Amino acid sequence: MAKDQDVSSHKNVDNKSNHTKRQNLVNNLKWLIKDQWFLLAMGIIILIASQVQVPSSRQPIKRTIVTYLSVSIIFFVNGCTLSPRVLLANYKKWKIHAFVQLQCYLVTSALAFAIVSLCATSPTFMDAWLLIGFLILGSAPTTMSSNVVMTRQAHGNTALTVVQSVIGNFLCPFLTPVLLQMYLSSGAWYSDVLVSGDNYAEIYRRVFKQLGLSLFVPMAIGQVVQYVFPAPTKKVFVDWKMMKLSSFALLALVWQTFDQAFCSGAFDSVKASNIVFIVFIDIALYFLWLSICFAASTAWLSKQDIIACCYCCPSKALSMVVPLSSVMYINVSAVDLSKLQIPAIIFQAVQVAIGGILTAVFRGWIKQTEDDNERNGEGERKQDGGWSQESV
Protein backbone atom coordinates (compact mmCIF):
# COMPACT_ATOMS: atom_id res chain seq x y z
CA MET A 1 0.00 0.00 0.00
CA ALA A 2 2.81 2.41 0.92
CA LYS A 3 4.55 1.57 -2.36
CA ASP A 4 1.38 2.39 -4.33
CA GLN A 5 1.07 5.71 -2.50
CA ASP A 6 4.68 6.59 -3.39
CA VAL A 7 4.09 5.78 -7.07
CA SER A 8 0.89 7.86 -7.06
CA SER A 9 2.72 10.75 -5.37
CA HIS A 10 5.49 10.64 -7.99
CA LYS A 11 2.90 10.64 -10.79
CA ASN A 12 1.19 13.69 -9.29
CA VAL A 13 4.51 15.50 -9.07
CA ASP A 14 5.30 14.60 -12.71
CA ASN A 15 1.85 15.72 -13.85
CA LYS A 16 2.24 19.04 -12.04
CA SER A 17 5.70 19.47 -13.55
CA ASN A 18 4.41 18.74 -17.07
CA HIS A 19 1.47 21.07 -16.54
CA THR A 20 3.83 23.84 -15.39
CA LYS A 21 6.05 23.34 -18.44
CA ARG A 22 3.05 23.47 -20.79
CA GLN A 23 1.75 26.57 -19.05
CA ASN A 24 5.15 28.26 -19.33
CA LEU A 25 5.30 27.36 -23.02
CA VAL A 26 1.83 28.80 -23.61
CA ASN A 27 2.71 31.97 -21.69
CA ASN A 28 5.92 32.39 -23.71
CA LEU A 29 4.02 31.94 -26.97
CA LYS A 30 1.41 34.48 -25.88
CA TRP A 31 4.16 36.96 -25.00
CA LEU A 32 5.89 36.37 -28.36
CA ILE A 33 2.67 36.91 -30.32
CA LYS A 34 1.80 40.03 -28.32
CA ASP A 35 5.29 41.51 -28.54
CA GLN A 36 6.08 40.59 -32.16
CA TRP A 37 2.57 40.54 -33.65
CA PHE A 38 3.62 43.06 -36.28
CA LEU A 39 6.41 40.83 -37.60
CA LEU A 40 4.08 37.81 -37.71
CA ALA A 41 1.40 39.85 -39.48
CA MET A 42 3.94 41.05 -42.03
CA GLY A 43 4.91 37.47 -42.85
CA ILE A 44 1.26 36.56 -43.38
CA ILE A 45 0.69 39.61 -45.59
CA ILE A 46 3.70 38.82 -47.80
CA LEU A 47 2.47 35.22 -48.14
CA ILE A 48 -0.98 36.46 -49.20
CA ALA A 49 0.55 38.92 -51.68
CA SER A 50 2.56 36.10 -53.25
CA GLN A 51 -0.61 34.10 -53.94
CA VAL A 52 -3.25 36.73 -54.80
CA GLN A 53 -2.60 40.12 -56.42
CA VAL A 54 -4.65 43.10 -57.53
CA PRO A 55 -5.09 43.05 -61.37
CA SER A 56 -2.40 44.88 -63.33
CA SER A 57 -4.88 47.44 -64.65
CA ARG A 58 -5.66 48.56 -61.10
CA GLN A 59 -2.10 48.58 -59.77
CA PRO A 60 -1.40 52.31 -60.38
CA ILE A 61 -4.53 53.51 -58.57
CA LYS A 62 -3.99 50.99 -55.77
CA ARG A 63 -0.39 52.11 -55.31
CA THR A 64 -1.35 55.79 -55.19
CA ILE A 65 -4.23 55.33 -52.76
CA VAL A 66 -2.44 52.97 -50.38
CA THR A 67 0.84 54.93 -50.36
CA TYR A 68 -0.68 58.36 -49.77
CA LEU A 69 -3.36 57.14 -47.35
CA SER A 70 -1.01 54.98 -45.26
CA VAL A 71 1.74 57.60 -44.90
CA SER A 72 -0.93 60.24 -44.17
CA ILE A 73 -2.38 58.10 -41.35
CA ILE A 74 1.08 57.58 -39.82
CA PHE A 75 1.88 61.29 -39.78
CA PHE A 76 -1.62 62.29 -38.67
CA VAL A 77 -1.23 59.99 -35.66
CA ASN A 78 2.15 61.55 -34.90
CA GLY A 79 0.66 65.02 -35.27
CA CYS A 80 -2.01 64.12 -32.72
CA THR A 81 0.41 62.59 -30.21
CA LEU A 82 3.61 64.65 -30.40
CA SER A 83 3.98 67.93 -28.54
CA PRO A 84 4.56 70.95 -30.86
CA ARG A 85 7.11 72.24 -28.35
CA VAL A 86 9.09 69.00 -28.53
CA LEU A 87 8.93 68.91 -32.33
CA LEU A 88 10.29 72.45 -32.50
CA ALA A 89 13.04 71.59 -30.02
CA ASN A 90 14.09 68.62 -32.18
CA TYR A 91 14.19 70.76 -35.33
CA LYS A 92 16.88 72.85 -33.59
CA LYS A 93 19.23 69.86 -33.14
CA TRP A 94 21.27 70.71 -36.23
CA LYS A 95 24.29 68.60 -35.20
CA ILE A 96 22.14 65.45 -35.09
CA HIS A 97 20.54 66.40 -38.43
CA ALA A 98 23.95 66.68 -40.05
CA PHE A 99 25.06 63.41 -38.42
CA VAL A 100 22.01 61.48 -39.65
CA GLN A 101 21.81 62.91 -43.16
CA LEU A 102 25.54 62.41 -43.82
CA GLN A 103 25.10 58.75 -42.95
CA CYS A 104 21.81 58.37 -44.83
CA TYR A 105 23.33 59.69 -48.05
CA LEU A 106 27.14 59.53 -48.04
CA VAL A 107 28.00 56.58 -45.79
CA THR A 108 25.24 54.25 -47.00
CA SER A 109 25.77 55.07 -50.69
CA ALA A 110 29.55 54.66 -50.43
CA LEU A 111 29.22 51.24 -48.81
CA ALA A 112 26.60 50.21 -51.38
CA PHE A 113 28.98 51.29 -54.16
CA ALA A 114 31.75 49.20 -52.57
CA ILE A 115 29.50 46.11 -52.53
CA VAL A 116 28.42 46.72 -56.14
CA SER A 117 32.05 47.12 -57.24
CA LEU A 118 32.91 43.75 -55.70
CA CYS A 119 29.90 42.05 -57.30
CA ALA A 120 30.62 43.62 -60.69
CA THR A 121 34.02 41.95 -61.13
CA SER A 122 32.24 39.26 -63.17
CA PRO A 123 29.57 40.42 -65.68
CA THR A 124 27.95 36.99 -65.53
CA PHE A 125 27.49 36.96 -61.76
CA MET A 126 24.61 39.44 -61.45
CA ASP A 127 22.31 41.36 -63.75
CA ALA A 128 23.35 44.98 -64.41
CA TRP A 129 19.91 46.27 -63.40
CA LEU A 130 20.22 44.64 -59.98
CA LEU A 131 23.61 46.26 -59.40
CA ILE A 132 22.21 49.68 -60.30
CA GLY A 133 19.30 48.92 -57.99
CA PHE A 134 21.73 48.59 -55.09
CA LEU A 135 23.21 52.00 -55.95
CA ILE A 136 19.74 53.56 -55.97
CA LEU A 137 19.01 51.88 -52.62
CA GLY A 138 22.18 53.23 -51.02
CA SER A 139 21.53 56.75 -52.33
CA ALA A 140 17.87 56.88 -51.24
CA PRO A 141 16.66 58.90 -48.21
CA THR A 142 15.39 57.44 -44.97
CA THR A 143 11.84 56.15 -45.03
CA MET A 144 8.89 58.26 -43.84
CA SER A 145 6.90 55.38 -42.36
CA SER A 146 8.52 52.34 -40.73
CA ASN A 147 11.24 54.23 -38.84
CA VAL A 148 8.65 56.50 -37.20
CA VAL A 149 6.45 53.56 -36.16
CA MET A 150 9.41 51.48 -34.93
CA THR A 151 10.94 54.35 -32.95
CA ARG A 152 7.68 54.80 -31.07
CA GLN A 153 7.47 51.06 -30.38
CA ALA A 154 11.09 51.03 -29.15
CA HIS A 155 10.48 53.99 -26.76
CA GLY A 156 12.94 56.21 -28.64
CA ASN A 157 12.68 59.87 -29.57
CA THR A 158 9.80 59.71 -32.06
CA ALA A 159 9.80 63.49 -32.57
CA LEU A 160 13.43 63.37 -33.72
CA THR A 161 12.63 60.56 -36.15
CA VAL A 162 9.75 62.56 -37.63
CA VAL A 163 12.03 65.57 -38.10
CA GLN A 164 14.77 63.46 -39.72
CA SER A 165 12.23 61.92 -42.10
CA VAL A 166 11.06 65.36 -43.19
CA ILE A 167 14.61 66.67 -43.71
CA GLY A 168 15.85 63.52 -45.46
CA ASN A 169 12.99 63.34 -47.94
CA PHE A 170 13.20 67.07 -48.61
CA LEU A 171 16.87 66.65 -49.57
CA CYS A 172 16.18 63.61 -51.75
CA PRO A 173 15.58 65.29 -55.14
CA PHE A 174 18.71 67.40 -54.69
CA LEU A 175 21.18 64.78 -53.40
CA THR A 176 20.10 61.37 -54.74
CA PRO A 177 20.43 62.16 -58.48
CA VAL A 178 23.85 63.74 -57.90
CA LEU A 179 25.11 60.74 -55.93
CA LEU A 180 23.81 58.29 -58.54
CA GLN A 181 25.43 60.24 -61.35
CA MET A 182 28.72 60.27 -59.45
CA TYR A 183 28.77 56.50 -58.89
CA LEU A 184 27.51 55.63 -62.39
CA SER A 185 30.15 57.84 -64.02
CA SER A 186 32.88 55.45 -62.84
CA GLY A 187 32.77 53.76 -66.26
CA ALA A 188 31.71 50.34 -64.94
CA TRP A 189 30.18 47.94 -67.49
CA TYR A 190 26.79 47.84 -65.77
CA SER A 191 26.18 51.56 -66.34
CA ASP A 192 26.09 51.02 -70.13
CA VAL A 193 22.49 49.77 -69.99
CA LEU A 194 21.17 53.15 -68.80
CA VAL A 195 20.03 56.13 -70.79
CA SER A 196 19.68 59.08 -68.46
CA GLY A 197 16.53 61.14 -68.76
CA ASP A 198 17.77 63.99 -66.54
CA ASN A 199 14.13 64.70 -65.74
CA TYR A 200 14.85 66.51 -62.49
CA ALA A 201 11.79 68.75 -62.71
CA GLU A 202 9.55 65.67 -62.61
CA ILE A 203 11.50 64.30 -59.65
CA TYR A 204 11.03 67.54 -57.71
CA ARG A 205 7.34 67.64 -58.56
CA ARG A 206 6.69 64.08 -57.39
CA VAL A 207 8.75 64.28 -54.22
CA PHE A 208 7.36 67.61 -53.03
CA LYS A 209 3.81 66.58 -53.91
CA GLN A 210 4.21 63.45 -51.78
CA LEU A 211 5.83 65.42 -48.95
CA GLY A 212 3.03 67.96 -48.95
CA LEU A 213 0.00 65.70 -49.28
CA SER A 214 1.11 62.74 -47.16
CA LEU A 215 3.41 64.36 -44.58
CA PHE A 216 3.05 68.11 -43.99
CA VAL A 217 -0.75 68.39 -44.34
CA PRO A 218 -1.68 65.36 -42.12
CA MET A 219 0.96 66.37 -39.56
CA ALA A 220 -0.39 69.92 -39.40
CA ILE A 221 -3.99 68.71 -39.09
CA GLY A 222 -2.96 66.39 -36.27
CA GLN A 223 -1.25 69.22 -34.42
CA VAL A 224 -4.39 71.38 -34.75
CA VAL A 225 -6.61 68.54 -33.50
CA GLN A 226 -4.33 68.01 -30.51
CA TYR A 227 -4.34 71.75 -29.70
CA VAL A 228 -8.12 72.23 -30.02
CA PHE A 229 -9.22 68.93 -28.41
CA PRO A 230 -6.38 67.87 -26.07
CA ALA A 231 -8.39 65.68 -23.67
CA PRO A 232 -10.48 63.78 -26.29
CA THR A 233 -7.41 63.31 -28.48
CA LYS A 234 -5.43 61.80 -25.62
CA LYS A 235 -8.37 59.55 -24.72
CA VAL A 236 -8.70 58.27 -28.29
CA PHE A 237 -5.02 57.60 -28.92
CA VAL A 238 -3.94 56.45 -25.46
CA ASP A 239 -6.95 54.97 -23.66
CA TRP A 240 -8.46 53.51 -26.83
CA LYS A 241 -4.99 52.58 -28.15
CA MET A 242 -5.64 54.13 -31.56
CA MET A 243 -1.90 54.70 -31.98
CA LYS A 244 -1.97 51.16 -33.38
CA LEU A 245 -3.34 52.74 -36.57
CA SER A 246 0.27 53.59 -37.48
CA SER A 247 1.23 49.92 -37.39
CA PHE A 248 -1.76 48.88 -39.50
CA ALA A 249 -0.96 51.63 -42.01
CA LEU A 250 2.61 50.34 -42.26
CA LEU A 251 1.31 46.81 -42.88
CA ALA A 252 -0.79 48.20 -45.73
CA LEU A 253 2.36 49.73 -47.25
CA VAL A 254 4.20 46.39 -47.01
CA TRP A 255 1.26 44.63 -48.70
CA GLN A 256 1.15 47.23 -51.48
CA THR A 257 4.87 46.83 -52.15
CA PHE A 258 4.87 43.06 -52.45
CA ASP A 259 1.52 42.89 -54.24
CA GLN A 260 2.97 45.11 -56.95
CA ALA A 261 6.23 43.16 -57.09
CA PHE A 262 4.56 39.77 -57.46
CA CYS A 263 2.02 41.14 -59.95
CA SER A 264 4.75 42.58 -62.19
CA GLY A 265 6.64 39.27 -62.17
CA ALA A 266 9.74 41.01 -60.84
CA PHE A 267 10.97 37.99 -58.91
CA ASP A 268 10.34 35.63 -61.85
CA SER A 269 12.68 37.67 -64.06
CA VAL A 270 15.69 37.13 -61.78
CA LYS A 271 17.68 33.98 -61.13
CA ALA A 272 16.90 32.30 -57.80
CA SER A 273 20.59 32.43 -56.84
CA ASN A 274 20.55 36.20 -57.36
CA ILE A 275 17.44 36.59 -55.18
CA VAL A 276 19.11 34.66 -52.36
CA PHE A 277 22.25 36.74 -52.74
CA ILE A 278 20.24 39.99 -52.65
CA VAL A 279 18.56 38.90 -49.40
CA PHE A 280 21.91 38.23 -47.74
CA ILE A 281 23.45 41.47 -49.05
CA ASP A 282 20.43 43.50 -47.90
CA ILE A 283 20.67 41.98 -44.42
CA ALA A 284 24.43 42.61 -44.33
CA LEU A 285 24.01 46.21 -45.48
CA TYR A 286 21.32 46.91 -42.88
CA PHE A 287 23.43 45.59 -40.00
CA LEU A 288 26.55 47.35 -41.33
CA TRP A 289 24.77 50.71 -41.58
CA LEU A 290 23.12 50.14 -38.19
CA SER A 291 26.41 49.23 -36.50
CA ILE A 292 28.20 52.31 -37.84
CA CYS A 293 25.36 54.55 -36.67
CA PHE A 294 25.17 52.97 -33.21
CA ALA A 295 28.94 53.08 -32.68
CA ALA A 296 29.20 56.70 -33.82
CA SER A 297 26.27 57.95 -31.74
CA THR A 298 26.80 56.26 -28.36
CA ALA A 299 29.55 58.67 -27.33
CA TRP A 300 27.45 61.85 -27.51
CA LEU A 301 23.71 61.14 -27.69
CA SER A 302 21.06 60.05 -25.19
CA LYS A 303 19.56 56.58 -25.52
CA GLN A 304 16.27 57.93 -26.92
CA ASP A 305 18.15 59.91 -29.59
CA ILE A 306 20.41 56.94 -30.36
CA ILE A 307 17.35 54.76 -31.02
CA ALA A 308 15.90 57.42 -33.34
CA CYS A 309 19.17 57.61 -35.28
CA CYS A 310 19.46 53.83 -35.46
CA TYR A 311 16.07 53.63 -37.15
CA CYS A 312 16.70 56.58 -39.50
CA CYS A 313 20.23 55.90 -40.77
CA PRO A 314 19.91 52.32 -42.09
CA SER A 315 16.32 52.65 -43.33
CA LYS A 316 15.50 53.47 -46.95
CA ALA A 317 12.34 54.87 -48.52
CA LEU A 318 10.90 52.51 -51.13
CA SER A 319 8.27 55.19 -51.76
CA MET A 320 11.11 57.35 -53.12
CA VAL A 321 13.04 54.60 -54.92
CA VAL A 322 10.09 53.70 -57.16
CA PRO A 323 9.38 57.20 -58.56
CA LEU A 324 13.09 58.04 -58.78
CA SER A 325 13.88 54.95 -60.83
CA SER A 326 10.84 55.60 -63.00
CA VAL A 327 11.62 59.22 -63.93
CA MET A 328 15.44 59.38 -63.86
CA TYR A 329 16.00 56.93 -66.71
CA ILE A 330 14.20 56.62 -70.04
CA ASN A 331 13.53 53.70 -72.41
CA VAL A 332 13.52 51.17 -69.57
CA SER A 333 11.24 48.15 -70.05
CA ALA A 334 8.78 47.09 -67.35
CA VAL A 335 10.84 43.96 -66.61
CA ASP A 336 14.11 45.90 -66.29
CA LEU A 337 12.40 48.52 -64.14
CA SER A 338 11.20 45.73 -61.84
CA LYS A 339 14.75 44.38 -61.60
CA LEU A 340 15.96 47.87 -60.75
CA GLN A 341 13.59 47.98 -57.78
CA ILE A 342 14.09 44.44 -56.43
CA PRO A 343 16.98 45.27 -54.02
CA ALA A 344 14.83 48.03 -52.48
CA ILE A 345 11.71 45.85 -52.37
CA ILE A 346 13.52 43.07 -50.50
CA PHE A 347 15.26 45.65 -48.30
CA GLN A 348 11.82 46.98 -47.30
CA ALA A 349 10.96 43.60 -45.78
CA VAL A 350 14.41 43.27 -44.21
CA GLN A 351 14.34 46.68 -42.50
CA VAL A 352 10.81 46.19 -41.16
CA ALA A 353 11.55 42.65 -39.93
CA ILE A 354 14.85 43.50 -38.23
CA GLY A 355 13.48 46.80 -36.96
CA GLY A 356 10.52 44.98 -35.41
CA ILE A 357 12.81 42.56 -33.59
CA LEU A 358 15.03 45.39 -32.39
CA THR A 359 12.08 47.17 -30.75
CA ALA A 360 12.14 44.59 -27.96
CA VAL A 361 15.93 44.96 -27.60
CA PHE A 362 15.76 48.75 -27.43
CA ARG A 363 12.83 48.69 -24.99
CA GLY A 364 14.88 46.48 -22.67
CA TRP A 365 17.80 48.89 -23.02
CA ILE A 366 15.61 51.86 -22.10
CA LYS A 367 13.96 49.95 -19.22
CA GLN A 368 17.35 49.16 -17.73
CA THR A 369 18.12 52.89 -17.58
CA GLU A 370 14.71 53.65 -16.07
CA ASP A 371 15.23 50.99 -13.40
CA ASP A 372 18.65 52.44 -12.59
CA ASN A 373 17.13 55.92 -12.35
CA GLU A 374 14.40 54.67 -10.02
CA ARG A 375 16.97 53.03 -7.79
CA ASN A 376 18.93 56.26 -7.74
CA GLY A 377 15.76 58.27 -7.02
CA GLU A 378 15.91 60.27 -10.24
CA GLY A 379 12.15 60.36 -10.80
CA GLU A 380 9.83 59.31 -13.55
CA ARG A 381 10.90 57.89 -16.84
CA LYS A 382 11.54 60.25 -19.73
CA GLN A 383 9.14 60.47 -22.62
CA ASP A 384 9.71 61.43 -26.26
CA GLY A 385 7.39 64.41 -26.04
CA GLY A 386 4.23 62.47 -26.77
CA TRP A 387 2.10 60.38 -24.48
CA SER A 388 2.44 56.81 -23.33
CA GLN A 389 5.35 55.01 -24.95
CA GLU A 390 3.57 51.69 -24.93
CA SER A 391 4.33 48.99 -27.46
CA VAL A 392 1.97 49.39 -30.38
Automatic annotation (TrEMBL):
<dbReference type="GO" id="GO:0005886">
    <property type="term" value="C:plasma membrane"/>
</dbReference>
<feature type="transmembrane region" description="Helical">
    <location>
        <begin position="170"/>
        <end position="191"/>
    </location>
</feature>
<feature type="transmembrane region" description="Helical">
    <location>
        <begin position="342"/>
        <end position="366"/>
    </location>
</feature>
<feature type="region of interest" description="Disordered">
    <location>
        <begin position="371"/>
        <end position="392"/>
    </location>
</feature>
<feature type="transmembrane region" description="Helical">
    <location>
        <begin position="275"/>
        <end position="301"/>
    </location>
</feature>
<keyword id="KW-0472">Membrane</keyword>
<keyword id="KW-0812">Transmembrane</keyword>
<feature type="transmembrane region" description="Helical">
    <location>
        <begin position="129"/>
        <end position="149"/>
    </location>
</feature>
<feature type="transmembrane region" description="Helical">
    <location>
        <begin position="66"/>
        <end position="88"/>
    </location>
</feature>
<feature type="transmembrane region" description="Helical">
    <location>
        <begin position="308"/>
        <end position="330"/>
    </location>
</feature>
<feature type="transmembrane region" description="Helical">
    <location>
        <begin position="100"/>
        <end position="123"/>
    </location>
</feature>
<feature type="transmembrane region" description="Helical">
    <location>
        <begin position="236"/>
        <end position="255"/>
    </location>
</feature>
<dbReference type="InterPro" id="IPR038770">
    <property type="entry name" value="Na+/solute_symporter_sf"/>
</dbReference>
<feature type="transmembrane region" description="Helical">
    <location>
        <begin position="211"/>
        <end position="229"/>
    </location>
</feature>
<protein>
    <recommendedName>
        <fullName>Sodium bile acid symporter family protein</fullName>
    </recommendedName>
</protein>
<keyword id="KW-1133">Transmembrane helix</keyword>
<dbReference type="InterPro" id="IPR016833">
    <property type="entry name" value="Put_Na-Bile_cotransptr"/>
</dbReference>
<feature type="compositionally biased region" description="Basic and acidic residues">
    <location>
        <begin position="371"/>
        <end position="384"/>
    </location>
</feature>
<feature type="transmembrane region" description="Helical">
    <location>
        <begin position="37"/>
        <end position="54"/>
    </location>
</feature>
<dbReference type="Pfam" id="PF13593">
    <property type="entry name" value="SBF_like"/>
</dbReference>
